[in-house]
Design goal:
nucleic acid binding, 5 helices, mainly alpha, two-stranded antiparallel ribbon, transferase, DNA_methylase_N6_adenine_CS, SAM-dependent_MTases_sf
Length: 145
């Protein structure tokens, strides 16, 4: 496996810009909802017709800081994945990669360069990292039978 050095000038040096990709797709599908480079949401609702549910009542999973978390997730990463041959098992023959890093940053970097090439990702949760799962995990609610 040869590794090519990638500098900041290469398009591959950044993760995908999800926000821009989504905007470009909207422009392709609904060019009429853009005015002066911005989305006219009223026009978008009109184009979508009855599909739009603009009622305020709906179920939602939310928390304080959710909007900021989404913004961080959509920000392109300029990080670099570096192979760690000594941490890997049978590096030359398995085709498996061991990647250690911040979960979100690593996933953003994998998204573009490994799109449709990854069969499985195991993420060690940020709590109890590197230790065995020793907690009671066979909980049953007595009310449900």
């Amino acid at each position: 496996m040869t590794i090519e050095k990638i500098t900041l000038n290469y398009p591959e040096s950044k993760s995908a810009d999800i926000t821009q990709k989504n905007i470009d797709q909207l422009k392709q599908l609904f060019p009429e909802v853009f005015s002066e480079g911005k989305i006219d949401f009223d026009a978008l609702k009109a184009v979508l017709g009855e599909v739009v549910d603009d009622s305020d009542e709906r179920y939602n999973f939310t928390w304080r800081g959710k909007a900021r978390a989404r913004q961080i997730a959509q920000t392109p990463s300029t990080g670099t994945l570096r192979p760690c041959k000594e941490e890997s098992v049978n590096w030359d023959t398995t085709g498996n990669l061991f990647i250690e890093g911040d979960n979100l940053e690593v996933l953003k970097l994998l998204q573009k360069s490994y799109h449709k090439k990854v069969k499985m990702i195991y993420i060690d949760p940020p709590y109890n990292t590197g230790n065995d799962f020793i907690y009671k995990d066979n909980f049953q609610d007595k009310l449900i039978r």
